[in-house]
Amino acid sequence: MGLSEKGETKATRQCWECSKRRLVCDCTLPHCRKCQKAGRQCSGYDDTKPLQWVQTGMVTSRRRKKKDNSPPKVYVATPTSSQDRQISCQDGGISEQEFYGRMYENDYICEPVDYEDALTSFYQKQEGVPKVSAPELHVSAIKMTACANEAARIFKTWGRAKIEDVVEKGLHDEAAKILRSKRDPLRRLKRLVVVLHKYEVPNYAYLANETSDVVQAVQYYNGRIRAQYKAYGELVPNPAIVVFPPQVLHLLTPAIHHTLVCISLNHFVHAQPSGADRAITSMNRSKIYHHRGAALRSLSEYIAQDKTRCSDMTITSILMFMCLELQNPSFTDWRSHVNGMKRLIDLRGGPKQLMKDAPHLVPSLVIYLLIISLANTCSPSWDQVDITSANGTIIEDLSSVYDLIFPYTLCPRELYIEILQIGQLRSKASAAMLLYDADPAHSLEAHDLLARIDAFSPEDWAQAGPLYSEWLLLGQIYQAAVSLYCSMSLQSLTVLPPSMSLQKAQEEKGNVLLSSVRIALQDPRMARHMVWPLAVAGVEGIHRSEATKDWIEASLGDLSRLLGTSCPLKASAVLKRYWKSGVPGWDSCFDRAYAFII
Question: Would 331 be classed as within a structural domain?
Fold first, then answer.
């Protein structure tokens, strides 16, 4: 600061506004009087220029215009040889060459494995077409497209996390498997990681969470699983197979959410064609285990609380999880879920009372009863699940809802009731054997069962109309299968003593069953229901040729892909072990509880 002649305090520098306009400032404080007289706002005498707001549309500076109208300069780079054109990228001061060695532009990261096939196809399409002016350009484009397709395949199949893990651990064989090439695979994969980090390619893994998995599972069910059942439901439409509305997801339990994901992923994995990439299966398996564990934790929380232990939602959640366990490739302890479900239903008064109190649970309970009734046929006689109600009328109870059971099996009502009665007789005969108290009435009941099964007429049962031949074939299949199940299972308990006539009858029924199933497997509408008849044919086929056994095994594998479930594969594994043992008999085959219905 300084003093004027009149003793006023003045600034030692001009204000910013006068300096901008190149005027002589009077340097008065606190503001310049010259600016005030001119009607301008003085910007002060600070060392730094103050910020000023610029109104919208105003321009504070413009580029200088050229005095002449000369055209802009064009800069041309002198081309160099391919050997001198080394690709480099600086990332934190480390060049690509230092990171993975010397590489050139023709050393692709993702080798165009399918390039030759694409090029051959291109030249075939060019036959008879006038020569193009720049064929090298087309060839180069085809090669780059093949590289891009290969990169897309790598990321879709393996994912970025897997690629970075292989590079970090230096797994040469894994890198060669990913790139489908043994030409410096680890070095080229390392280069790919460098490019991803250098250009900061975002990782979108955070977008995939459990919520998105649930929504995708619902979409997969509606778009593929339900669509397949609807397409094959021409014989008998199933009213329980409906569109799953995504807008009600928030009303369901987390256990149902996670179980839905597992069921959809299981279907996707098992529906893959033979020879599909195993990497897809392994990636989805880890997801299945994750969501299965989450579903188990959620179920445990609901069962631990008195308020939700026997609720409708808990019963539905357990049933869905039980169906998931039956689809599990490993032989899990699915019976523990059945026993837990049975205890909860008994707390609600039994199946019949629960159907009366909660009609909306009837479709779920129908599946539960169907699983148990057919699982008992593939279980030891001494290890049956007792679903008899308090008044002992379970057969009548199931008969009342058989219209809902029928679309899942296409088994005639009369033969399905005989299956239930055979199971009850097996249980009674097994208990008598443990007590060394054979009851002659059991043998009489067994002969009555066989007589009623043989008296069944597929011709009378088949519905007249354009699908008569299909219904007739289904009636013949189930008549032969139920007859074999009755004779072989009761013969294992010595209720039916072995005889030449019984052996001849079994052989004839086996021939009918095999020939009929061969025809049914050619029609997807009937093939979906052939798992249990094929399992019965496999038990009877222990004395048949290796070609027949191979056909049964291959047919079960095809059914696994058609149904999108592992149940046919588990049936095949059980039959192969049984054939290898060489010990015939129903209980010799099913020495533990199995279920091949889902």
Answer: no
